[in-house]
Specification:
Blueprint lengths: L4 E3 L5 E3 L2 H16 L7 H4 L17 H11 L9 H9 L5 H6 L2 H24 L4 E5 L6 H5 L5 E6 L1 H7 L9 E5 L17 E5 L8 H14 L3 E8 L1 H12 L17 H5 L5 E7 L9 H12 L3 E8 L4
Parallel strand pairs: 3-4, 3-6, 4-5, 6-7
Antiparallel strand pairs: 1-2, 7-9, 8-9
Length: 318
């Protein structure tokens, strides 16, 4: 059954059959009652973008964030990070230079780095289910969401401006605490509670500092938490030069965001102290199915030690 409702030039409704009369009477009751829905146009406006106020090195946190968002939107992603997608959509930041100039291999490397760190943490938690994890230079990282076993104790550490931005998108909880501090300020060490053992992770941080600075920091961890573990990524001197040109500058950042420290040989790090022991060394590309061009370039990167991840034990657990 069909019906027609005609609208007169004076705004009146003309009823052509029983169903249209019912509809008409319903509208009339609403009008007579005065309960007419009102649209708040202010609330209906598109959510305003969140402005960014970060230092030059801190801005590099958007690079892996962008990489995870891009990966999450792929048909068959290696990693899904809905938080990264949400942040990309909400921040007032120009991602156009990254999207236009970033080599796909760099984006893949950020994903693989996350996956390796996840694996190291999972293995640590097998031995210490209630263990403590400290994410040094956390940026807008979401590792906690992927590895949370419901028992661990987690700390996200970064500079105050980064933690302020982080708090707009990611929340603290009973087992997850934000610490606004430079990792070089040793006072933050007194704020963490260690259950069983502690694993320090640092992705995309240490190579922005001189080797001596990083060495002193690591040796400080060794003295404060003997037997603790540390997982972090490194880059060779060649890798530092390539990253500064092909990644940092191509993304619209300048020399103030450049990488500084390139590792000639992992043995140089192990030589910092005889109590430092290598637990694992992980390359990025050789096990991935990423297309011929990326596979060849990635394999060459692995063979030349351009970038990789080290997993260390800092002394013996007391």
């Amino acid at each position: 059954m069909c019906f027609v409702i005609k609208v007169g030039v004076d705004g009146s409704w003309w009823k052509d059959n029983l169903l249209s009369k019912i509809i008409f009477n319903g509208f009339r009751k609403i009008l007579d009652s005065g309960n007419i829905p009102v649209v708040d146009h202010k609330e209906a406006k598109m959510t305003e973008k969140i402005n960014i106020e970060l230092g030059n090195v801190q801005k590099t946190l958007f690079l892996p964030l962008w990489g995870r968002a891009v990966e999450s939107r792929k048909r068959k992603p290696m990693l899904v990070d809905e938080t990264a997608v949400r942040i990309i959509d909400q921040v007032n930041y120009d991602f156009a230079p990254i999207t236009a100039n970033m080599d796909e291999l760099s984006q893949i490397a950020w994903i693989k780095r996350s996956l390796i760190c996840d694996q190291v943490i999972d293995k640590f938690l097998e031995q210490y289910p209630e263990g403590t994890i400290v994410n040094i230079g956390c940026g807008l990282d979401t590792t906690f969401e992927r590895v949370n076993n419901g028992k661990l104790r987690w700390y996200d550490l970064d500079l105050p401006d980064v933690i302020a931005l982080r708090g707009k998108f990611i929340q603290e909880s009973e087992r997850r605490t934000f610490i606004a501090s430079s990792f070089l300020d040793k006072d933050w060490l007194e704020q963490i509670e260690v259950n069983g053992n502690v694993l320090f992770m640092s992705a995309g941080v240490f190579y922005y500092f001189e080797e001596e600075t990083v060495r002193d920091f690591v040796l400080g961890l060794l003295e404060a938490y003997p037997g603790s573990e540390l997982v972090f990524d490194v880059s060779s001197p060649v890798g530092v030069r390539v990253a500064n040109k092909k990644v940092v500058e191509s993304s619209g950042l300048d020399e103030r965001s450049h990488l500084v420290w390139g590792v000639e040989d992992k043995k140089d790090i192990l030589a910092w102290d005889s109590r430092i022991r290598l637990l694992g060394m992980y390359y990025y590309f050789r096990t991935l199915r990423i297309g011929l061009r990326n596979f060849l370039m990635g394999t060459m990167s692995d063979l030349l030690g351009i970038q990789y991840i080290l997993h260390l034990e800092l002394g013996e657990l007391e």
